[in-house]
Specification:
25 strands, Bactericidal permeability-increasing protein, domain 2, disordered C terminus, 745 residues, disordered N terminus, 7-stranded antiparallel sheet, 27% strand
Length: 745
């Protein structure tokens, strides 16, 4: 009787949870509406009116009528089953958006912006559908049956293939339905791409672009403020030391840095570095240059002249990192002077006497030589300095672009390891740099972008490093890519043997995982686990599903994982126990087979100690398909006995209850984030977007300083292909051999 009562209670629990119902999986994961952002804004406005102590708004009744009408039209759009009805609903929504434009009320302005963000791509898609349909119907009549059939296929494609997929997607009430609709949309998109590649046609291109812009949006948006990028980009430009150029040695002395900053650019990350330098160059053949000038020849007979040029300059290096690579160029501000010295030449005493009588003493002649030389110096030093810098930078730029080429592979794409960012966008503003794109795996068949834009709550980046990620599309791409790897395909099953370890032990010590274990070996592991007589010690064998799991986000903001063809084996409960008696047949091992399983997770970020972060996740829903079954295995797996539907449901429900009660804790402190630490993780928005904000964990050393010219033959060290140039420029070695210096007359 006691067992019967327990079984009855368990059955009641199963019924209340929906196990055995045809809609159990669907009830677990309600799909968010496509206009979730608009709904949130309206809810926040209404909540502000209903808060305790809120001042009554006399316009609230009128606004509520407006909100109800707007939501009704949005629902009408979602429930429309053909392009005409969708366009009709969009037209009404557009009129309401226009009405909001005349209202100078902050909540109304926000509502209109949310509405316009939702509406823009859908209006574009609706008109693209209509233009294609009208173009086909407006073509000249023909009696060619193949042409008629082709035109009809286009009409049917817009109305049925794409139209039905859009209706299923927008009208979905469950995550499963939404995912099915999204698959159909992407099938239609692939079909459009194939047709346009084979035979380009403008209306078809417009339709493809509109569908792609709505359902394959960028899913990664990174913002790094100037405090984050400055340690990487802010580098010294000049290395002190001697430099040889065109027969002259210069001594370059690096001065202080005078500037670093980000510059506005929509065509790359644009920044500059500035530094002072002094370059002193003895002009070793100055006497010969004086003597080569007819007027100077007279002075050279009287005195031995020497010259040293000095340039107190400011060097600025501008760098732009585009999706095509680096572009670097120098700019100078020069302050050029020279020191001219003279000494009497032997045997020239009479000439110096005559020159002195007419007022041209040694100082006067030296001054005239200076006046004739300084103009030449000030003309040629900037030219030579610019050429020298460009020559050195050209080599470094080519070297660094060669390094970047393994990542920036062209066509606005960045590849790293097994991943690819397409539609790569690099931008900068004085306060931050912005990187965006569509993150995917390089392999896999289920590579998709975001099907919703970033919500308004993520419009403004946080200080530090902000990464906004459309989590569901990124996880789908990663999972699909992983399942294409050979090492994953080679795994048929995993056996997990848990251990009883002290609290706080590393996760890897809590279990051992073995690949591709056959049933006899697993059976022996079960026997060993049972001998331990410890509930914390068990052996589980999990079969690898044939396809990667799929991820989505439901209306509650829960991450939903959908896994097909789940099969796992667990030790059967002792037959003398109450749980064992429910099974009804002798069994050592239970094999659970679930054709379709949905698991919904919630999460929250905890800070157990200052600066430490961890994620605590929880299984909120465990929803197996109704065709699931449990097999009882004793010794021979070929003689497995199916449990009754009731007993199998009890077993699966028990697994779900165990998972729901088991917290999942992930410590984030051990992640290798290269000098960064996680500051916060936002709640998962129903649109699929989540924000991860990072800050510098410690003062990071510069990634690299690229020494273009190191003194004394030292090898330049360069590890960061984006870091600012370090340029040692002999800014005063500018007199080409044989270049005469005129003496002022």
């Amino acid at each position: 009787m006691q067992r019967l009562v327990i079984a009855t209670i368990a059955a009641g629990m199963l019924i209340s949870q929906g196990v055995g119902s045809s809609n159990s999986a669907q009830a677990a994961a309600p799909a968010p509406t496509s206009y979730n952002g608009v709904e949130k804004t309206i809810s926040s406005i209404r909540d502000s009116w209903s808060r305790p102590g809120a001042v009554a708004d006399p316009n609230a009744p009128g606004w509520n009528v407006f909100f109800d009408a707007l939501l009704s039209d949005l629902r009408a759009y979602s429930q429309a089953d053909n392009p005409v009805d969708r366009l009709t609903a969009l037209n009404r929504i557009y009129q309401m958006s226009v009405a909001l434009a005349a209202v100078p009320w902050a909540p109304a302005i926000q509502l209109r912006e949310d509405l316009r963000q939702w509406m823009r791509p859908r209006v574009r898609l609706a008109w693209a559908e209509r233009r294609l349909d009208e173009t086909v119907r407006g073509l000249p009549p023909t009696s060619d049956s193949s042409i008629i059939a082709n035109r009809q296929r286009w009409v049917d494609f817009v109305a049925s293939d794409l139209g039905d997929a859009l209706s299923e997607y927008h009208g979905a009430t469950t995550v499963a339905q939404r995912q099915d609709g999204l698959k159909r949309v992407h099938d239609a998109l692939r079909s459009l791409k194939t047709r346009n590649q084979e035979r380009p046609w403008q209306p078809s291109w417009e339709l493809q672009t509109a569908v792609n812009d709505l359902f394959n949006q960028p899913n990664l948006d990174i913002t790094a403020d100037i405090n984050v990028v400055q340690p990487v980009f802010d580098q010294n430009l000049v290395t002190s030391g001697p430099v040889y150029r065109k027969g002259y040695w210069s001594q370059v002395t690096a001065g202080p840095k005078t500037g670093f900053g980000l510059l506005p650019s929509d065509d790359g990350i644009f920044f500059y570095n500035s530094q002072l330098l002094t370059s002193v160059t003895p002009i070793t053949d100055f006497q010969n240059q004086i003597a080569s000038d007819p007027q100077g020849r007279k002075a050279a007979k009287l005195y031995e002249f020497s010259a040293t040029s000095c340039d107190a300059a400011q060097l600025t290096i501008y760098t732009v990192l585009r999706t095509s690579g680096l572009t670097i160029w120098p700019a100078y501000n020069h302050n050029i002077d020279a020191s001219i010295c003279s000494a009497p030449e032997p045997g020239g005493g009479f000439g110096r006497l005559v020159a002195g009588l007419i007022g041209m003493n040694q100082n006067k002649i030296t001054q005239k030589v200076y006046e004739g030389a300084i103009g030449n110096f000030r003309q040629r030093i900037p030219q030579e300095a610019q050429e020298e810098a460009q020559e050195r930078i050209a080599g470094q730029q080519a070297e660094r672009n060669a390094q970047l080429a393994q990542y920036l592979i062209g066509n606005n794409m960045l590849a790293f390891q097994d991943f690819l960012i397409s539609g790569l966008s690099l931008r900068s503003r004085p306060e931050a740099v912005y990187v965006g794109g569509l993150l995917q795996s390089q392999a896999g068949d289920r590579q998709r972008g975001a099907d919703a834009p970033q919500p308004a709550t993520l419009a403004v980046p946080d200080p530090g490093l902000t990464a906004d990620v459309h989590l569901s599309s990124v996880l789908n791409s990663i999972a699909d890519g992983l399942f294409q790897r050979g090492q994953v395909k080679s795994v048929s099953n995993l056996m997990i043997v848990t251990k009883d370890v002290p609290p706080g032990s590393p996760p890897q010590q809590a279990s051992t995982i073995t690949q591709n274990v056959d049933f006899p070996a697993y059976s022996r592991a079960v026997d060993e686990a049972l001998k331990a007589n410890n509930p914390k010690v068990t052996a589980i064998r999990v079969k690898r599903p044939a396809q990667a799991p799929e991820f989505a986000v439901d209306a509650r903001g829960f991450l939903v994982a959908t896994v097909r063809d789940v099969e796992l084996e667990v030790p059967a409960p002792d037959k003398s126990s109450q749980a064992g008696s429910v099974i009804g047949v002798p069994a050592r091992i239970l094999r659970i087979q679930i054709p379709h399983l949905e698991v919904a997770f919630s999460h929250q970020v905890e800070e157990p100690t200052p600066g430490s972060h961890r994620i605590r996740a929880k299984v909120e829903d465990f929803s197996p398909s109704t065709t699931s079954q449990v097999l009882a295995i004793n010794e021979d797996e070929s003689k497995a006995t199916p449990l009754t539907r009731f007993s199998g449901a009890l077993v699966i429900s028990a697994i779900g209850a165990r998972l729901r009660s088991q917290p999942i804790v992930v410590n984030l402190d051990n992640l290798d984030l290269r000098g960064f630490a996680i500051q916060s993780i936002s709640p998962l928005d129903p649109s699929g977007w989540v924000r991860v904000n990072l800050t510098r964990a410690q003062t990071a050393a510069p990634v690299a300083t690229a020494a273009v010219a190191a003194p004394a033959g030292a090898e330049p060290v360069q590890t960061n292909p984006v870091a600012a140039e370090s340029v040692q420029v002999p800014a005063t070695t500018v007199l080409a051999p044989g270049g005469p210096v005129a003496v002022a007359r």
